[in-house]
């Protein structure tokens, strides 16, 4: 279990990356022990599922770090969404193990990208950001993704409690 970074940590890079890993692990913990039917079930009017949210988080990593910051050519950018892009989507032929592996692979690629950059480096040309003169710095992207994780892990807290009563970390 990854613990929250210590309150003595003062380095921006270590603090940001420590919290990002903390929330990545928290998202996985929220899904641990849920049977597949619960992973694929929705309990909310919006229709997203816990497994769909994990897939979405994998694509958040892909879009913000690979396509956005590193300007990698990435063929598949939006298959975490239904065709109308209104809710997170997992195809019936995608297993929970595949989605977990996708998530872990995208997190690993993000770690590689971030390790080779400074926090003040801006997103490369040719990626996601338009207009072309708008290229956010890596530190901004990390903060943005961190807040997205915090929000989504909170949503998983609620869904997990509704599914089986589990609360807490």
From TrEMBL:
Pfam families: MST (PF04978). It comes from the Bacteria. This is DinB family protein. It comes from Actinomadura soli.
